[in-house]
Design goal:
Number of helices: 7
CATH class: Alpha Beta
Number of domains: 1
CATH topology: Rossmann fold
CATH architecture: 3-Layer(aba) Sandwich
Structural class: alpha/beta
Shape: globular
Length: about 130
């Protein structure tokens, strides 16, 4: 089975039912049922901030339940060093560089996202879940 890293946007689409993104993401997931889904503490931080601000306890709980069921990848100093290099070389924003470095470090074969800006830095590893 292949390990894939979920960008925060993909988790949001899965949990928040935002049409048409949620349905497209679910269809993509159904076509890729053999994947081991991986997340990191950074994904958790990015998806839970807004529901916490809005005191949306049920939504926070939905996120926590989903994330707890995934394969967790730690972010260590080596990953920060690799993210630094990716950010300098490709002009990525800090969170994107950290997501990509985490996926690289932990041997993920793909990073599922909707952000085509990751293509240059990630090559064929970046898969746009909305592109079909």
């Amino acid at each position: 089975m292949r390990r894939v890293y979920l960008d925060a946007c993909v988790v949001i689409y899965l949990i928040e039912n935002a049409a048409p993104f949620s349905e497209l993401t679910r269809q993509f997931l159904a076509r890729n049922g053999d994947a081991i889904l991986c997340v990191s503490p950074l994904v958790r931080m990015e998806v839970i901030v807004k529901p916490l601000r809005e005191s949306a306890a049920a939504l926070v709980s939905d996120y926590e339940d989903f994330l707890a069921a995934q394969n967790w990848l730690a972010i260590n100093d080596n990953i920060f060093d690799q993210a630094l290099q990716l950010r300098a070389r490709h002009g990525l924003k800090t969170p994107d560089a950290l997501h990509l470095a985490t996926a690289f470090h932990h041997g993920c074969m793909e990073i599922w996202t909707n952000d085509d800006r990751l293509n240059k830095a990630a090559g064929s590893m970046a898969v746009n879940v909305l592109a079909g």
